[in-house]
């Protein structure tokens, strides 16, 4: 782009950021939707308002070759927002890109596997962090932003602030987790954060990438080949509580889900449910064999 074209794009881009804020979008959404506009502009070296439908098709066809569908959906939504609120144009995105409807079942560790993994996590801060994720069913960002003030030792509850969708919630604090958090906090004594970064990043939460790398290393050491990430510990928390008899409504509140349908997906992951299904199928088959024998 020449200087004039660049100034034109910069004006539109600032309008895009303003509109995102005015629409009350979350910081993560603003970042993703802004990145979508920057990415397509860099690809064509042209302002997005000059692109045709054929250009958009070409772009998404190339994006599919190099990025995941989750990224493609974010870019699609970000550009749709840009067209609607900044350019004031309607973009029929369904005619351009429609991600496949895929529903996958996440891998789950047993309680014994989680205990084994925790015991073999050598770095203390990661060990306590993984314990916190699992025993309170937290999202990665929720655990990273825990503060000293969020821990209520009298009521044994933790205030989870600004969760997904901007929702706060209270979750029970297990005794063992409190003990672990206290011991870990004494190693750094940060005035605010429970899990601060190190060195120059001491006033910001621990690095997400470091946490993910640490988990991969521990899983490899433990010879656990399932596809497990820090977020998987939240899935394990939910599944194991259902196996112990917790009702879906209570689990929904613990996890901070907006819909009970989201929570109900964990019922298919429980071993109890699988055993019941196996038992009923065997019973059905046995009854059929008895009927056949009587004929």
From TrEMBL:
Domain named Core-binding (CB): which ranges? Answer: 1-87
Checking InterPro entries in the record gives: CB, DNA_brk_join_enz, Integrase-like_cat_sf, Integrase_catalytic, Integrase_recombinase_N, Integrase_SAM-like_N, Tyrosine_recombinase_XerCD
**What are the protein's UniProt keywords?**
DNA integration, DNA recombination, DNA-binding
- Indicate the segments forming the Tyr recombinase domain, all copies: 104-281
- SUPFAM superfamilies associated with the record: DNA breaking-rejoining enzymes (SSF56349)
Q: Provide the family line.
A: Belongs to the 'phage' integrase family.
Entry protein name: Integrase
């Amino acid at each position: 782009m020449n200087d004039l074209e660049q100034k034109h794009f910069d004006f539109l881009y600032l309008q895009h950021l303003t509109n995102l804020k005015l629409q009350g979008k979350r910081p993560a959404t603003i970042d993703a939707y802004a990145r979508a506009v920057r990415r397509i502009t860099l690809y064509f070296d042209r302002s997005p308002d000059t692109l045709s439908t054929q250009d958009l098709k070409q772009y998404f066809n190339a994006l599919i070759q190099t990025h995941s569908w989750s990224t493609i959906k974010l870019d699609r939504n970000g550009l749709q927002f840009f067209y609607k609120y900044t350019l004031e144009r309607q973009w029929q995105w369904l005619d351009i890109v429609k991600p496949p409807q895929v529903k996958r079942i996440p891998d789950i560790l047993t309680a014994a596997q989680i205990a084994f993994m925790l015991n073999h996590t050598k770095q203390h801060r990661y060990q306590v962090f993984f314990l916190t994720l699992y025993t309170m069913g937290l999202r990665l960002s929720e655990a990273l932003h825990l503060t000293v003030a969020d821990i209520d030792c009298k009521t044994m509850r933790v205030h989870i602030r600004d969760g997904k969708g901007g929702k706060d919630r209270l979750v029970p604090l297990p005794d063992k987790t409190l003990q672990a958090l206290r011991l870990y906090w004494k190693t750094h004594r940060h005035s605010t954060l429970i899990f601060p970064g190190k060195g120059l990043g001491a006033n910001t939460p621990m690095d997400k990438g470091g946490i993910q790398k640490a988990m991969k290393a521990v899983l490899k050491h433990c010879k656990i080949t399932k596809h497990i990430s820090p977020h998987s510990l939240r899935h394990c928390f939910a599944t194991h509580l259902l196996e112990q008899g917790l009702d879906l409504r209570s689990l929904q509140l613990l996890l901070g889900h907006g819909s009970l349908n989201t929570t109900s997906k964990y019922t298919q992951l429980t071993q109890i449910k699988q055993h019941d299904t196996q038992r009923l199928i065997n019973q059905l088959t046995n009854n059929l064999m008895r009927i056949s024998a009587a004929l």
